[in-house]
Structures are given as structure tokens and as C-alpha cells.
Design goal:
About 60% of the residues lie in helices and about 5% in strands. With about 130 residues, it is mostly helical. A two-stranded antiparallel ribbon has the order 1-2. Strand 1 and strand 2 form a beta hairpin. Helix 7 (about 90-95) runs antiparallel to helix 8.
Length: about 130
């Protein structure tokens, strides 16, 4: 399973496991699997059932899209919903933005951000008068 990011589920699983500093056999024990099952997942020889994918995502606290390589955004929908604020430019840089179906370049995103910031400061100045 290669996602839109070019990263496979197995590569993500291996990376997440290593980030936690755990061996395949330890992950296997935690999920009542054999070490060879984990190795098969990581090498792309096997694919887990949906309930196993959900359990892995919950354990590593990542979204299913991230785990499957469909996104580079680790946060789950619940994490997104509970976030109090986003830095505007960072948000724009982390996402593909389109206008009329045309993707914005990084330069276009910067221009859009600059315009929005300008409008924001103008509104603040108007409120002071």
C-alpha cells in the first residue's frame, strides 16, 4: 500500500516503531501477533485487517491517513478539532491549497498570506478609530 506521499504503510509502521524504540517482537507481543507478522507488514508482504490498522493508529497516536501514507499530517481528527489555534502561514504551507482547482505555489501562498495579514492589520487599525 503506497500512499500519495510515496510512503508505504510498512515504512510508516517501521518508522513509528523505531521512534518508540521498540523491537518487532515487542510490538508483536503488544498486539498479540507474531514477530513475523510485524516483519511482513513492514516489508509489504502482508496487509493488516482494518481493526488492526485502527489499533496501530491509536497506539502510535496518528491518523489512519498518516499510517497508510496518504498524508504527512500525523494529527487525528480529534487532535485537529481540539487544537486552539493554527499559525496561518504554517497551516498554508502544510496543506495543498487550490483556487478554482489550480494548486497554489509556495510563492502564491506567501502572497496570499501577506494580503490576509495586511487586511487583518487594516481592520485592527479601523477598530481603533
Amino acid at each position: 500500500m503506497t500512499g500519495v506521499t510515496g510512503v508505504t504503510f510498512g515504512e510508516r509502521l517501521r518508522a513509528l516503531r523505531k521512534e518508540r524504540g521498540i523491537q518487532q517482537r515487542e510490538l508483536a507481543r503488544l498486539f498479540n501477533l507474531s514477530p513475523s507478522a510485524i516483519g511482513g507488514y513492514e516489508r509489504g508482504l502482508r496487509e493488516p485487517e482494518i481493526n488492526q490498522l485502527i489499533a496501530f493508529a491509536k497506539f502510535f497516536n496518528v491518523s489512519l491517513d498518516y499510517l497508510l501514507g496518504r498524508s504527512n499530517e500525523r494529527r487525528t481528527a480529534d487532535d485537529f478539532a481540539s487544537a486552539q489555534s493554527f499559525e496561518y502561514f504554517d497551516f498554508m504551507q502544510a496543506h495543498t491549497l487550490t483556487i478554482n482547482g489550480q494548486p497554489l505555489s509556495d510563492e502564491d501562498k506567501r502572497r496570499l498570506c501577506d494580503m490576509a495579514i495586511g487586511l487583518f492589520w487594516m481592520r485592527l487599525q479601523e477598530g481603533k478609530n
